[in-house]
Design goal:
The complex is a heterotrimer of chains A (235), B (280) and C (254). By secondary structure, chain A is mainly α. Chain A has helices at residues 3-17, 20-53, 59-69, 74-85, 100-136, 141-151, 153-168, 172-178, 188-197, 201-231. Chain A contains ten helices and no strands. The longest helix of chain A is centred in the middle third of the chain and has 37 residues, at 100-136. Chain A is globular. The model of chain A has no long low-confidence stretch (mean pLDDT 92). The model of chain B has no long low-confidence stretch (mean pLDDT 89). Chain B is globular. Chain B has helices at residues 2-25, 38-42, 45-57, 68-76, 88-96, 129-139, 151-162, 167-170, 182-192, 200-205, 241-252, 254-262, and strands spanning 31-37, 60-66, 82-85, 100-116, 143-145, 175-177, 195-199, 212-216, 223-231, 264-265, 268-269, 272-273. Chain B starts with a helix and ends in a 7-residue tail after the last strand. In chain B, strands 1, 2, 3, 4, 5, 6, 7, 8, 9 and 12 form a ten-stranded mixed beta sheet that branches. With 280 residues, chain B is of the alpha/beta class. Chain B has twelve helices and twelve strands. Chain B is 45% helix and 24% strand. Chain C has 254 residues and is α/β, with parallel strands linked by helices. Chain C has a domain at 18-104 and 166-248: Rossmann fold, CATH 3.40.50.300. Chain C has nine helices and ten strands. In chain C, a hairpin with a 2-residue loop joins strand 9 and strand 10 (225-231). The model of chain C is unreliable at 1-15 (pLDDT under 50). The chains are: A mainly alpha (235), B alpha/beta (280), C alpha/beta (254). At the A-C interface, helix 5 and helix 6 of A face strand 6 and helix 3 of C.
Chain lengths: 235, 280, 254
Amino acid sequence: MQDFANSFSLAFELLWRFDPALGEIVFLSLRVTFAAVLIACAIGLPIGAALAILRFPGRGLFVVLFNTLMGLPPVVVGLLVYMLLSNAGPLGVLRLLYTPGAMIIAQSVLVTPIIVALTHQVLSDLNAEYADTFRSMVVPWHKAAVTLLWDARYALLTVVLAGFGRAIAEVGAVIIVGGNINHVTRVMTTAIALETSKGDLALALALGLVLLMIALAVNAAVMAVRASARRMAYA
Amino acid sequence: MLTRFFSASAAAVLALGVVATAPALADDDRFIIVQSTTSTQNSGLLDAILPQFKEKSGIEVRVVAVGTGQALKNARNGDGDVLLVHAKPAEEKFVADGFGVKRSDVMYNDFVIVGPKSDPAGIKGLSDAPLALRKIADSKAPFASRGDDSGTHKKERALWKMAEVDIGEASGSWYRETGSGMGATLNAAAGMGAYTMSDRATWIAFKNKGELAILTEGDDQLFNQYGVILVNPEKHAAVKKDDGQAFIDWLIGAEGQKAIAAYKVDGQQLFFPNAVKETN
Amino acid sequence: MPDPRVLPFPTSPGEARPAARLPLTIRGLGFVADGTRILDGIDLDLADNRLTVIMGPNGAGKSVLLKLLHGLLAPSAGRILWGGRELDRQTRQRQAMVFQKPVLFRRSVRANLQFAVNLKKSPEATELLSILMDDLHLNDLADRPARLLSGGEQQRLALARALLLAPDILFLDEPCANLDPASVLLIEETLHKARAGGTKVLLVTHDLHQARRLAEDVVFLHRGRLTEHSDADSYFDTPASPEARAYLAGQILL
């Protein structure tokens, strides 16, 4: 298959020229994913912290639920969000279908369970260490939650990265609610799907490589932050 | 304390949501959404003609390219202003059910049966599509079907019926339903050396032909008519009636028809305009 | 009715606080973990604002007793009353504890202390902060990550953080085990100061020398039971119980 070699050279060429059409798609991918991860964190971090600290009946059920939701198929999420945002659906009046907003919502739904479940895990470990101190100092639970979130912030970066990885690589949900509309809702993954269906496998793979490189850059940046934190014994 | 914590987080989420979606909401350019099929997009036709319409009218056309079945369903939900698809009976039913205002012919091309150059079923050069399918069935050579209720799939099933082949029984053996778009199905056929049926436009623009070639073509049964429909604003108030109608008028008018005829890939014309001139 | 207001840590010795004089009354206290009886039938009155040292061989239940008194564990039997009141959120806010292995937040030294200041929200806390940083020689360490400090530095920080809460009772669970002598000295000086300021101090230690230096009265535990509670002088000179005698003579290892 000469496609592989083609793809690599094509990928570098695309990056080298900084193709404006590609730039637009990359920018939208990042914008949608960053917004979705931000929303997922705003919802998921407090819930994860609460699950790690509070002891209430049914807590175990919630933990199992969120762990299960981590495996939510993107297509199912896409379908649910489509049904919500469709003109025939309850939120149709918002006119969000086939806009980046719809894609952000779908990805938020996908990523939030990951943030909740992994945050719960990370903070449970830290809470095991801090719990006696919190109790001794009579720290209210919401302050304890903030403390755990802050002190585990570098460990939580990995959690956020997991969410980012899921969102940026996902195609099933965004193609349904975004519609892969050129210049409006076309992101890296839907562009890859489109090129694949056009049979332009080399270009599709090249776009995949570009996506991989972007993900690599984001991961490397976060890991560098984490490494410096570890030197300070903050992680 | 608890309420304060939650109301603070809720406020943060809301604020973030607004910030994140604001650019999308603020987007008040004039645009319509056209539910269309993969063939019009994958062949590059829409990319070629839509800018001409935008330049003239100032209306941006946003295309959601899915199978005809999916496009009809989305339009039924009011998620789109105009339908541009290719399954005439289903389109007529859509209008009859009151979801569309009126159906107009736009253009046509034809379907072709492609398969491996080795042609184990021996259909090369045939111009009788049902006979070709009959031979494929008899040889039990693999056939990749869209299996997605698209316009192409509807047509393919009709041809199998004419060929008196029970594909339901063969499903999973030599008859393989990919359940995906034309491109993905062509990829699958190329991958497993199977026969498949494609619209000519997608086939010509398709770049991963591999060992596949056109084997059967030219049957009147393989005629592929595209139609355009304005989604009924009486069913869905959000439908952009005027802008949608403007697009339809352009598409079936002289300019649009000329633009369609002018679109060529590798020197081949992919779509043939055949809108009926309005006589009023 | 005693003054329920939390008083700031006094800046000059001798400023006794009424709350610290509340009697700590322990009746029939027992604790069972996984079927093992760790404490059994403890009766104890700690009426004064004295510096009480709890001694006893390993496994005697000293740490568990501290945790019960501080409300970190719930008793299996018996009651703990402080000024006639059960332990609750409010009373526990007027206590503080230093653990044998300090648990410090993953932050700088100053941020660890600021955490306690923020919790207390009293105007005096900021003033107290600079006093404690001076007393415990933390100024040069202020911007260092707490978890990179030496053992002695960590424990000095933990003590400062506990005292920032301006507790009426301070519990310490073997705070000076394996620490450098300089840190031990700073910690003991600070405990003296806190004690003089009216904070009741309850200290678990294995170090006989430290006990002699600090103790005003001594509680001796052996195998989950209280065998002796007496003034420090009489405990060290003429221990009443055979167990305490044997322990002081170095004859009980467990």
